[in-house]
Amino acid sequence: MPQALTAAVQKPDTAIRVMIVDDSVVFRGLVARWVGEEPDLSVVAAHRNGYEAVENLMRVNPDIVVLDIEMPVLDGLATLPLLLAKKPELVVLIASVLTRRNAEVGMKALTLGAADYIRKPESNREASTSASFRTDIIGKIRHLGRRWTHKKVLARPVPKPSEATESTPPQITLRPFSQYQPRALLIGSSTGGPQALQTLMKGLAPVLPQIPVLITQHMPPTFTTILAEHIARASGRPAHEAGHGERIVAGTIYVAPGGKHMRIERKGDYNEIALDDSAPVHFCKPAVDPLFTSAASVYGHHALAMILTGMGIDGAAGAGDIVEAGGSVIAQDEATSVVWGMPGTAAEAGSCAAVLPIDEIAGQVRKLLSGGSV
Q: 139: domain range?
């Protein structure tokens, strides 16, 4: 039977409604307690398998589901499409212990519509004592859930100008593209990135033989290996986790390995990958800023960067460095981003030459590479 939860009635109607689906009663209780202690979050149900979650979905009407992969009766991968079929706007956060198999299944879930993945600690004891895990999962639930609770607010009667309390959204000022043809494509992404990268790489396929592509996606080890495999299939080009000291060549896609920052260094008449194990940047490792900042130094006005969907501000400082060096930056727009944190921060800082839907970015890049008008 599903756990009885009454916390929802004690929270405001704007609270993010959370369903937890995991076969571990300890994990369900742990996350439910953490969520219950947050004033803007509310647990509406907790289930031990996917079947119970699907059957109960429309009755409790969650905004976000925290979904385990390995469960009896109906596992996470089988549950996901059933949940989304019933409620297409539902946000699903995959939570699972990191193994090669779970990473493969998790990546599949991301391509099927899950919004993000979070790595569960190896044991319930480790989960219960990990302050960082609590911070991470609550942060993801809050940021992802806001995507849909924001619509609840928008659906309410619009206040008269004299009653408005929120400030006007900042205007985005675009700058001209560099007049120089790009010699490297730099991409940074986080939450929602795997789906966005699939779309982008398919669109870029015709021009990829003429330019190297370097990608930093916020993901743990193992996941980045599988991400590179998916990108290779989507693009039809060689794609792999970058190696330290590897020479950068046109037509190859390099993915920053989980747990390492990826930078670019100039070595005589060629450029190579530099990986390092230094501290996280913006709590991320790999982080986008080290890639972008190093690319600005090496490629200057020939650098073209893209900041895709993701939480936080990573990439904004590096985008500023690219612009200062004469290069160009494109951001994914808010409507097609799962979370408009990273691209929004760069856009609002005035670093972007274009802010585009994900399915239009490749066309813009193809124009730049062909020397066409922009």
A: 7-154
